[in-house]
Amino acid sequence: MGTTDGDGKKQEMLDLLTSTQIVIHDALKKLGYNEEMYHLLAEPIRTVSVRIPVRMDDGSTKIFSGFRAQHNDAVGPTMGGVRFHPRITIDEVKALSMWMSLKCGIADLPFGGGKGGIICNPRTMSFGELERLSRGYVRSISQIVGQVKDIPAPDMYTNSQIMAWMLDEYSSLRQYDSPGFITGKPLVLGGSEGREKAGAKGVTICIEEAAKKRGISLKGARIIIQGFGNAGGYIAKFLHDSGGIIVGISDVYGAIYHPDGLNINYLLDRRDSFGTVTTLFEGAITNQELLEHDCDILVPAAVSNQITAKNASSIRAGIVVEAANGPTTLEATKILTERGILVVPDVLAGAGGVTVSYFEWVQNNLGYYWTEEEIAVKLRERLVKSFNDVYDLAETRNISMRLAAYMVGVRKMAEASRFRGWL
After folding, report:
1. From first to last of its 423 residues, what are the pLDDT tens digits of the chain?
2. Is 115 marked active-site?
3. What values do phi and psi take at 8, rounded to 5?
4. Rounded-to-integer distance, Cα 379 and Cα 109, Å
């Protein structure tokens, strides 16, 4: 589970699956579970690989590879997003399904974790090609998904339109309307108010709670957000509207920083559909340089492994709230925690999306729909409780927020597995 150098120090050459397994193992050990429980939860109970033929616009047929992982269904059906990305792997999908289980446990939802992915580059595909790919994916996994089996949702580079195509294909296969099969749908097809912004709203709620714990007022707080796509853009907007001063943002091409704050509304208006905006400005800096600028709150909302042992000692923020998947390595988490920096982990900060997906699933089953204001109240209540559960455990046990979050998240499915007699 990693390599060692001549001094015996663990290197940070850990993939997402391995690092997730390490923390789950530590969490279960802290909770008093045996090795058998770890071996049950260290991998998904079910993983499928599929091949999807798609007729391209030029008349050729291209074969795409896709995956679906269902981590643990002891608590209830699995739930989790489907991402389109050129570099996604089956191990990444496995790890992300495990994270979804943890998020469901942290937010006390009646689900296990699921995750799906297709190896493709949506930036280079036409609308029609994306539709045919989406429908082909549903046909290939239709036997193992459904509103009481496994509920897909949007993820990286997928959206409500793609969810609508998937819903239509599944309903056609089953020959009845199945709105509860998938979440993140358009409102007219049974989607929930507040779902599109739920992930960013959840991160913002965690930022607010973390600031309270550290005695920081959000009004006037200097905030850096790495990433300016769907999540990062909404987070920037929410925090800006709350009086926060966004001093730095970035995209895949670079970053911009100004100590007096950036005009967030202007930047949001100028960015493209993939969150790119820094190319419009001279004097852009690198993403790594942005991370090391002085601020009160740092929000990594881009990609994994951005804060490592190499730069953790250079981070000059009092609070780090992870909006991306795995932006801080395990060694960096240890360094930051020892420095007194509050690190709010991704499995807690990122629980907003799956929580509102749960609300959407409930509304589909009931046939009764809540207002956006009602959704916002329910989301805040659940995530504030989740944050405090994790924070209090971290303080009581004198452990990192990450380990505490994993302990809270893993306990429910471990107990459900035990009661079912699986171990």
Report:
1. 443 444 434 455 468 899 999 999 999 999 999 999 999 999 999 999 999 999 999 999 999 999 999 999 999 999 999 999 999 999 999 999 999 999 999 999 999 999 999 999 999 999 999 999 999 999 999 999 999 999 999 998 999 999 999 999 999 999 988 899 999 999 999 999 999 999 999 999 999 999 999 999 999 999 999 999 888 999 999 999 999 999 999 998 999 999 999 999 999 998 887 778 988 888 899 999 999 999 999 999 988 889 999 999 999 999 999 999 899 999 999 999 999 999 999 999 999 999 999 999 999 999 999 999 999 999 999 999 999 999 999 999 999 999 999 999 999 999 999 999 999
2. yes
3. 80, 10
4. 12
The partner residues of 256 in beta bridges, in order of sequence, read 249
Fill in the DSSP letter of residue 333: H
Q: Encoding tokens for residue 100?
A: 């979804």
Buried b (16+ CB within 10 A) or exposed e, 65-95: ebbbbbbbbbbebbbbbbbbbeebbbbbbbb
**Using alpha carbons only, how large is the chain's radius of gyration in Å?**
21
CA distance linking residue 241 with residue 389, whole number of Å: 27
pTM above 0.90, yes or no: yes
CA nearest 152: which of 120, 187, 115? 115
Task: Pull the structure tokens for residue 372.
Answer: 């956006």
- The per-residue DSSP string of 51-100 comes to EEEEE-TTS-EEEEEEEEEE---SSS-EEEEEEEETT--HHHHHHHHHHH
Cα dihedral sign, 193-197-203-204: negative
Neighbours of 214 (CB within 10 A): 14
Q: What is the dihedral of CA 79, 43, 99, 420, to 10 degrees?
A: 60
Among residues 94, 103, 115, 237, which one is catalytic?
Answer: 115
Instruction: Please list, in sequence order, all residues whose beta carbon lies within 8 angstroms of the beta carbon of residue 270, skipping any fewer than 6 positions away.
Output: 277, 280
284: left (phi over 0), alpha (psi -120 to 50) or beta: beta
